[in-house]
Amino acid sequence: MLALRKTGPQPGLNFEEVAAPGAPGPDEALIQVEAAGICGSDLHVYDWDASYAFMRARLPVTIGHEFCGRVVALGSQAAGLAEGDLVAVVPTASCMKCQLCAAGQPQRCLSRSTLGLTRDGAFARQVRVPALSCIRLAGHTLPALAAMLEPLAVGDNAALVGEIGFGDTVVVLGPGTIGQAIARAARWRGAERVVVVGKGDGPRLRTALAVGATHAIDLEQGLTLPQALEQALGAGQADVVVEATGHPSSIADGLSILRKDGVLVSAGIHARPASLDMTALVRNRQQIRGAHASRRASWLSIARRIAEQPEDVLPMVSAELPLAEGLQGFAQCRARAVSKIILRPGD
């Protein structure tokens, strides 16, 4: 079968013909992939950023970790699923045996692997996954939206980490898929004003507005972030700032518009260290919190939302392409001309 793979420790991806995964193990499911999204992490893998060097020992590997598909075979010990079920798949595979897993925190498992990064993922026709990682979906759920369950859950987790609530003013730095998902989650959680900020990101900022942001700021117009926020809101501070750019300088920028006692959530993956004025942070009693991956509760709640209210997130889907055109999809994402590109391995 055709697969889009990271074959070596250098920039780029390659198509290869690989063997089908074969029969699932006792606690696994074999999934026929219906839709898989290109993620910002996949772009880092393409570029071979230093923050993804941990993959080196696992290469070559089929990438793709945002996906949905149909169960086509189940292992003898796989419970709660049936052949034909539409499922989304949590990409982190945990041991489910250690103390952290037993405490309901499999995302913290020290033995976890990640589909599409450290084991073969979904940019292929079929993928074998742990059955416990499958989230069963309503049969009428649109596959393109089901494939976005992972970034939507990541956005919801960032909103939870920031304790975003009713009436808050929230600024999201970065209008990519995760930034859009954070904006949507913030509105679902009652934020009154949600400002999404980009630079030269017109198409993605328009998408952010379409999925719930109340304001969009393009710093390409020459204003500083505090000036632009003052112009947009008539006030220059936020209750919560969520950084989703992956640019280290955005941390200091975010702190400059955060109120005293406010929370900055860092959800971006950075290729370089950040430089901060810690004295100002301490005197302003501000907090920086890291948000990474997601919680199963977010997956379950968002699965219901996308089945019942698809219009809330449908604008995030820019295009659906056959897998064979995947490199063109990567080019569009790298040009920041689109929000989410969905690849369809069966087309």
Structural account:
The protein has 347 residues and is of the alpha/beta class. The chain folds into 2 domains: 2-136 and 317-344, Medium-chain alcohol dehydrogenases, catalytic domain (Quinone Oxidoreductase, Chain A, domain 1); 154-290, 3-Layer(aba) Sandwich (Rossmann fold). It is built from 11 helices and 18 strands. The chain is globular. The model has no long low-confidence stretch (mean pLDDT 94).
Task: Spell out the key features of this protein.
single chain, 347 residues, alpha/beta, Quinone Oxidoreductase, Chain A, domain 1, Rossmann fold, 2 domains, seven-stranded mixed sheet, six-stranded parallel sheet, 27% helix, 26% strand, globular
By CATH reckoning, the class of the largest domain would read Alpha Beta
Share of residues in strands: 25-35%
The general outline is globular
Radius of gyration: 20 Å
**CATH fold-type name of the largest domain:** Quinone Oxidoreductase, Chain A, domain 1
